[in-house]
Design goal:
By secondary structure, this protein is α/β, with parallel strands linked by helices. It is built from ten helices and six strands. The chain folds into two domains: 148 residues, 2-Layer Sandwich (Nucleotidyltransferase, domain 5); 72 residues. It has a six-stranded mixed sheet, sandwiched between helices. Pfam families: MULE (PF10551).
């Protein structure tokens, strides 16, 4: 069409990090901060020194399932295997793309984003009951087994029936992707949120603005990945 729709960028050191440490991949999306106003997708891993390493940068014109499938197809081709774990926020299009392209990967949803969504949609309905709701929710979240989770969840909804419509429609069916009873049984390098990548996106915001061309943006991002490698190497000495 003559119009840029998607671009997947990685470098030799980034690919090497992905192939070494790609069992757990963390994904995050920042809003458009370039001359095309295209969102920047960032994929990262945790390396052997426990440091965040960026393994792919992607810009895409849409955040729908088809676009995410294209991105994950290229991530899969670059890695050569399906990650055991992929961590992201709660996005329906991305979740569907993971199921389609990475069916063997266990998709973990960022518990921080889960809680933010619950706060936004449930807190106004509960008012004075909110502190107790929050206390009980985290007790449910930390349930030691699936059976214990189900028991606590049922009691939880009975205590706060006004929250049931939202929780039942939006959180219960994804419980295996965020509740500790399931997540703690997986090797996640202790990752429960997308916080590592969001912090990295905070750095990326300093590297580009609304007038930044993609050429300049990716040059800076690739330099950032090289800096990560250097710092990781120094940490291992």
């Amino acid at each position: 069409t003559g119009v840029l729709q998607r671009l997947f960028v990685s470098s030799a050191p980034m690919i090497d990090a992905l192939q070494q440490f790609g069992d757990v991949v963390i994904a995050d999306v920042a809003q458009g901060r370039n001359v095309y106003n295209m969102p920047l997708n960032l994929f990262s891993v945790v390396d052997g020194a426990g440091r965040t390493r960026n393994v792919a940068y992607v810009v895409q014109d849409r955040e729908d399932q088809e676009s995410h499938e294209w991105v994950l197809t290229h991530l899969l081709a670059t890695y050569g295997n399906q990650p055991r774990i992929i961590v992201s926020d709660q996005d329906a299009g991305f979740s569907s793309a993971v199921q389609s392209i990475l069916p063997s990967s266990h998709h973990i949803l960022c518990i921080w984003h889960i809680w933010q969504n619950i706060t936004k949609n449930v807190k106004p309905k509960l008012r004075g009951k909110w502190p107790k709701f929050a206390e009980v929710f985290w007790c449910v979240y930390k349930a030691p087994s699936p059976a214990a989770f189900e028991k606590r969840w049922t009691a939880f909804l009975q205590m706060f029936p006004s929250a049931e419509p939202y929780l039942g429609a939006n959180q219960y069916h994804t419980r295996k992707s965020w509740a500790a009873a399931w997540v703690r049984t997986k090797f996640t390098v202790n990752v429960r949120t997308t916080g590592r990548v969001e912090s990295e996106n905070g750095v990326n915001k300093l590297l580009g603005g609304r007038k930044t061309t993609l050429t300049d943006l990716f040059k800076r991002l690739l330099c950032r990945a090289d800096d990560q490698l250097e710092h990781s190497t120094q940490a291992c000495k």
